Amino acid sequence: MYSSNLTGFVLALVSSTFIGTSFIIKKKGLRKAGVSGPRASVGGYGYLLEPLWWIGMISMIVGEIANFVAYVYAPAVLVTPLGALSIIVSAVLAHLLLGEKLQKMGVLGCLLCIVGSTVIVLHAPEERSINSVKEIWELAIQPEFLLYTASAAAIALVLIWYFSPRYGQTNILVYIGICSVIGSLTVMSIKAIGIAIKLTLEGTNQAKYFQTWIFAMVAITCIITQLNYLNMALDTFNTAVVSPIYYAGFTSFTILASAIMFKDYSGQSASSIASELCGFVTVLSGTFVLHSTREPDPPILTDLYTPLSPKVSWYIQSSGEHWKQKDEDGPSPNFITILRQDHFK
C-alpha cells in the first residue's frame, strides 16, 4: 500500500470512529436533557445546556476534519466507501451503551462492511501528485468532467424544480437523488480546497489563484444545497431507510466523479478494478443489511404536553322527544350543558 493511501486510510478510520461515536454521545445527551424538559423532537432546546451533547458535537467536528484531510492524501474512491465504518461504530456502541440490540443479521452486516472495506483498501489506486490548484483546475475543465458537471447540474435542477414539489413527499429517491448528485461535486471541490490548504501550509501560497476561490464558492453552494435536501429527506422518511440509500447514491456518484476527474483507475489492472468494485458492493450490501435489522426509536408521546379537553354530556329536548348522551367517565353534573330547541332558532 502506498504511504499516501495509508495516511488517507488512517484518517478515514479516525473520522469514522469519531463520527460514529458522536451519534451515540449526542443521543445520550438528548436523552439526559429530555428527562428534565421537552425533548428536541417536540421543539425543546434543553440539550444545548447539556455538556454531553456538546462532547458529541465536538467529536463529530473532529471526525469531519479528519475526513476532510483524508481527501488530501487519498483518492475519493478509497475515502468515501470507508464512511460505512462509522455505521459499524455507531451500531456496536448503540448495542453496548444504549441498549439497542444488535441482531445476528446486523453482526453479519458489520462483517460485510469490514470485509468490503479491506478489499477496497488493498486495491485502491495511488493518489496522484498535485503541485498547484491550477493542475486541479485543468482536471476540472476536461471535456469529460465538464460533461459530468453539466449533467449533474441538469439532473439536480430537474429534481429540484419539477420532481421535488410534486413527488418529494412520497418518493424518497427525489431528495436523496439531489443530495447524491450534488454531493459528488461537493467532494471534488473539498478535495481541491484541501490540496490548496496543504500546499499553502507547505509554503506555496494558493490563495493568489482565482481557481481556489471558485472551488470554495462551489463547495459552499453544494454543501448548503446538499444539507437542505438531506434534512428534508430525514424529516420526511424513516432514518433507517434514508441512511443506506443516501450512502449508496452519494458513494456511487462520488466514485464516478472522482474516476472521471482524477482518472483514479488509470494504469490499474482489470482485476484490481474488479476487486475494488466487488469490495464496494460488499460494503453496500453490509450497510443495507445492518440498517434493515436496526430497531426504530420508540414513538414520542407528544400528548404529555397537550392539555386534555373537558368531556361534555348534554340533554336535548325537542318536539316532546328526549335524547341524551352521557360519557360513562364524564365530568360531574356541573359540566352538563342543556340545549333547548329555542337555542337553534
What does this structure look like?
The longest helix has 33 residues, at 3-35. The chain is globular, with a radius of gyration of 27 Å. α8 crosses α10 (239-262). It has eleven helices and three strands. It has 345 residues and is mostly helical. Strands 2-1-3 form a three-stranded mixed sheet, with no helix packed on it. The model is unreliable at 300-345 (pLDDT under 50). β1 (314-318) and β2 form a beta hairpin. Helix content is 66%, strand content 4%. It has helices spanning 3-35, 51-73, 76-79, 85-97, 104-122, 133-140, 143-167, 172-201, 210-236, 239-262, 270-292, and strands spanning 314-318, 321-325, 337-340. It is a multi-pass membrane protein. The chain crosses the membrane at residues 6-25, 45-66, 72-98, 105-125, 145-163, 172-197, 209-229, 241-261. Belongs to the NIPA (TC 2.A.7) family. This is Probable magnesium transporter. One of its GO terms (cellular component) is plasma membrane.
Shape field: globular
Helix content: 55-70%
Low-pLDDT stretches: 300-345
Strand portion, in percent?
A: under 5%
* Count of separate DSSP helical elements: 11
The tally of strands reads 3
State the end-to-end distance.
90 Å
- Summarize model confidence as the mean pLDDT: 80
Q: Measured on Cα atoms, how large is the radius of gyration?
A: 27 Å
In what order do the strands lie side by side in the largest sheet?
2-1-3
Helix/strand/pairing category: mainly alpha
Largest pleated sheet: 3 strands, mixed
Q: What is the chains' assembly state? A: single chain
Order of helices and strands: HHHHHHHHHHHEEE
